[in-house]
């Protein structure tokens, strides 16, 4: 795992997007297509904007998988990650050739996990774009995260800290409105990606960055994103604020 620190959130996101473009284009050059996993959340706004503004990727030669989604929310809800991805990425680029979104309001969440899990199981994922939560979560794998489950997608319970983060970011009007369950890509599935780009800007993520990525922190289910230390092709992109609690 490599940690890259930039002076501003914008510079951080631009550098992460530049790396993303390089990985996608290398995959397309080598095998004619690229498969990627896309994260959501407020911390990914600038990264997605930089990625959309790049005209260097032939998105028609890419396949996209969705990282996580709330259970029970329709796509029309402001917090829907399907809505987010369509508005901030899918509808703004030429492609991707294939888009695999999680239907959080499916009648049976486990069947939805199985459906998309079967699709991703037949793919070699070239790169996963992820962030981390204020509680250190990776996707919606809150602490203590399950590092052992083999299923590509799982139904998870959202802890209090995670739900409060979603409220604080303005996605919901009250804490009671925040769903208690979600569909999440599992830790093992994320770690199967050939490369991982983890973009984590902002002061409110500084403690989680310290807990997960500092030199003396242990890899632990209590700090789910710490598992990225064990992935040799992970690049973490921080700004000065999110890196402010790391050892110099």
List the topology elements.
Layout: E1 2-6, H1 9-31, E2 34-38, H2 45-53, E3 62-66, E4 68-70, H3 81-88, E5 98-100, H4 109-121, E6 127-130, E7 153-157, H5 160-168, E8 181-185, H6 187-191, E9 195-200, H7 206-213, E10 234-239
Parallel strand pairs: 1-10, 2-3, 2-6, 3-5, 6-9, 9-10
Antiparallel strand pairs: 4-8, 7-8
Helix pairs in contact: 1-2
Question: What do these coordinates show?
Answer:
By secondary structure, the protein is of the alpha/beta class. Helices cover 30% and strands 19% of the residues. Helix 7 links the parallel strand 9 and strand 10 (234-239). Helix 1 (9-31) crosses helix 2 (45-53).
The helix content, as a percent range, equals: 25-40%
Main CATH class: Alpha Beta
In total, the number of domains comes to: 1
CATH-defined fold name: Rossmann fold
What is the makeup of the main sheet? 7 strands, parallel
Which descriptor suits the 3D outline?
Answer: globular
Give unreliable regions as ranges: none
- Computed over alpha carbons, the radius of gyration is 17 Å
Strand content: 15-25%
Give the strand line-up of the largest sheet. Answer: 1-10-9-6-2-3-5
List SSEs in N-to-C order.
EHEHEEHEHEEHEHEHE
Distance between the termini: 17 Å
* Derived structural class: alpha/beta
């Amino acid at each position: 795992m490599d940690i890259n620190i930039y002076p501003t959130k914008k510079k951080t996101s631009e550098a992460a997007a530049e790396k993303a473009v390089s990985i996608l284009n290398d995959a397309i050059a080598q095998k004619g297509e690229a498969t990627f996993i896309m994260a959501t959340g407020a911390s990914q706004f600038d990264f997605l904007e930089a990625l959309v503004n790049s005209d260097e990727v032939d998105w028609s030669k890419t396949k996209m998988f969705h990282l996580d989604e709330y259970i029970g929310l329709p796509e029309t809800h402001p917090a829907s990650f399907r809505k987010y991805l369509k508005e901030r990425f899918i509808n703004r680029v030429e492609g991707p050739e294939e888009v695999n979104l999680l239907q959080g309001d499916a009648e049976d969440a486990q069947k939805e996990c199985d459906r998309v899990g079967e699709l991703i199981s037949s793919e070699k994922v070239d790169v996963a774009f992820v962030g981390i939560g204020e509680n250190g979560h990776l996707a919606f794998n809150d602490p203590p995260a399950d590092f052992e489950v083999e299923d590509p997608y799982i139904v998870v319970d959202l802890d209090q800290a995670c739900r409060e983060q979603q409220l604080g970011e303005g996605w919901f009007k009250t804490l009671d409105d925040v769903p208690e369950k979600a569909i999440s890509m599992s830790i093992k599935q994320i770690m199967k990606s050939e490369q991982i780009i983890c973009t984590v800007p902002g002061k409110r993520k500084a403690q989680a960055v310290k807990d997960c990525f500092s030199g003396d922190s242990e890899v632990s289910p209590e700090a789910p994103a710490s598992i990225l230390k064990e992935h040799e092709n992970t690049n973490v992109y921080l700004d000065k604020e999110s890196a402010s609690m790391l050892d110099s």
